[in-house]
Predict the 3D structure of the following.
Amino acid sequence: MGNWSEELHNKIDEQLQGGNDKDLRFFRIDEFKRNIARVDDFSGSCPECQRNRIDIAEAVDTIHQAVNHVGKDRRTYDRLITRLSKHMQKEHGFYAPYYFTYLISFFGIIAGSILGYLLMQLNADIKLELFLIGFSICLLPTYVWGHLKDKKLRKEKRLM
């Protein structure tokens, strides 16, 4: 973590000192701090991170106003957090916890439903059982696959 990000972390802590923990979690302050450190690390090689440094500095100056009052500063802060998260995910490979578990399991649910429906058409007597078998055949492996990908991300410390 560089000097620039440490200064911003200290500035954020000063402005939000004594703030409500619920508000700090709701406004994703910890995620914002982690993304500041990542932007600082990647700004030497990534032009988008270099451009984001300006927006981050402006947001840190008005973070107290954004957290405590509804208005333009809050909208700007929310958009910056979202933009930083998308950039970190797309360009640098940082993902939210359980991202792949949920994503791949969703496709397993769809495939399992289709397979279950097709199996249901085979036998008129045990339709529900066949549907559940087809559903399970697709859902369980996709859940495990997503979990393993998330476990790999945790091991590499690439969580948002």
